[in-house]
Amino acid sequence: MNYQQFFRSRRGEMVGFLKQLVLAESPTSDKKAVDACSAIFLANCGRHGVRHTRFPQRGRGDFHLLEYPARDDDRLDGRLLVLTHIDTVWPVGRLAKMPFYLQGDKIFGPGVLDMKAGLVLAASALGALRELNLRPRRRIAMFLNSAEETGSEEAHEIIRAQAKAADRVLCLEPALPGGALKIQRKGRLVIRLDVHGIAAHGGSPGKGVSAIDELICLIRKIEALRSADVSVNIGLIGGGEKANIVAESAFAVGDIRFWTAAQRDKILAVLKALGPSVRRAKVKTTIESTTPPMERTKGSDALFAEARSVAAELGMKITGGKTGGGSDASIAAGLGRPTLDGLGPDGDGIHAAHEHALLSSLVDRAALLTALFLKI
User: Fold this and answer.
1) In the chain, N or C: fewer CB atoms in 10 Å?
2) What average pLDDT score do residues 240-262 get?
3) CATH number of the CATH domain containing 227
């Protein structure tokens, strides 16, 4: 079966569905909007014979698990977990500045690449299995996350549970520019520093303890962690009341990224040892969120080799690369599950005004995902 030809004949349907998803803006913080967009996706997948489990959420969009086929089939060999997300970084109303449109091979719009095009791939591949009466090698479990962009421990718990029950994991995040899969990702720590000093008159600073001065010292210690493998970004900072008052409190929030679990452990040791340079000051260090690195393993390398072989049968050549950004794939990979990421389409401009997906890649990746469902 020529899957590329099959999906080329359905480009109009795929673009139309992608337009529906993009026009249904779905910022992580807007539960109503996210749930409305999820409903569009779920209605499409519902036509393809899936079993649907909803995980209701109060402060965010609901999570969803789709299983294909809907009925158990003893002829299937194990379980394949597919990771997707419905939320975007763009607020409702962004379409006024970033309308959905096609220009040559490029499809523009907020969230079109990250990762609503990936959702179109998922639904299209399931539709192909159904329409062509094809049996996947494994039972397919697809998780639809509504809070991937901000991170959610509740979502991570579901991903961990599903990954433990799976033999392999595929993530439909966008490909690297040029189409490479993501076989390594940095891990991430989001930290918060809270410093309490003693207020005093600005004309007699020696009578107080400046929380801002203490915070600056702490930030310098953290920035000393920077290396070729470790990045540190202090992205938010605040404190004090007025220029003539010694600051009683100050805070900072930072993002630290790393390639290996060993590097993470060293960073955590440094953070644990942080303390005030002045006895009367108090320091609190909080790890607000953590994402493990997606490290290369023998299992993931073997899965990548299988994917390359499947792609070659379709006349495609795929390569692997690494990225500093994180994704839900890292959660599964952290459990030792063979994991491939970046199986979404090629494009550019993630989280930027020129965000776009390539139509030709949308077709090719739908063909590849369908073949992967059948063979890995």
Assistant:
1) N
2) 97
3) 3.30.70.360
| Claim to verify: residue 178 and residue 217 sit in the same structural domain | no
Q: At what angle do helices 359-375 and 298-313 cross, to 10 degrees?
A: 110
Q: Of 239, 262, 291, which residue constitutes the final position of a domain?
A: 291
DSSP category for residue 341:
B
Burial of 20 (0-12, 13-18, 19+ CB in 10 A): middle
Q: What is the DSSP letter of 175?
A: P
Residue finishing a domain among 291, 307, 330: 291
Question: Which positions ≥6 away from 349 have C-beta within 8 Å?
Answer: 113, 355, 356
pLDDT value of position 290: 87
How many domains does the chain contain in total?
A: 2
Q: Parallel, antiparallel, or unpaired: how do β-strands 339-340 and 168-171 relate? A: parallel
Residue 362: partners with Cβ closer than 8 Å, 6 or more residues away:
11, 14, 15, 18, 107, 117, 120, 121, 345
Mark whether 33 and 73 lie in a shared domain: yes
Kindly report the number of other CB atoms within 10 A of residue 32's CB atom. 10
Residues 178-188 have a mean pLDDT of 96
Alpha helices (H) along the chain: 3-8, 11-23, 31-46, 117-131, 153-164, 211-223, 261-273, 298-313, 329-333, 359-375
Looking at the fold, whether 36 and 122 belong to one and the same domain comes out as yes
Q: pTM of the entire structure?
A: 0.90
Residue 65 belongs to domain with CATH number: 3.40.630.10
pLDDT band at 107 (very low <50, low <70, confident <90, very high): very high
Burial of 190 (0-12, 13-18, 19+ CB in 10 A): middle
The predicted-structure confidence for 280-318, as pLDDT tens digits, reads as follows 999 999 999 888 999 999 999 999 999 999 999 999 999
Label the pairing between strands 51-55 and 63-68: antiparallel
Distance CA 326, CA 295 (A): 12
Say which amino acid occupies 31: K
**Residue ranges making up the domain that contains 355:** 3-186+293-375
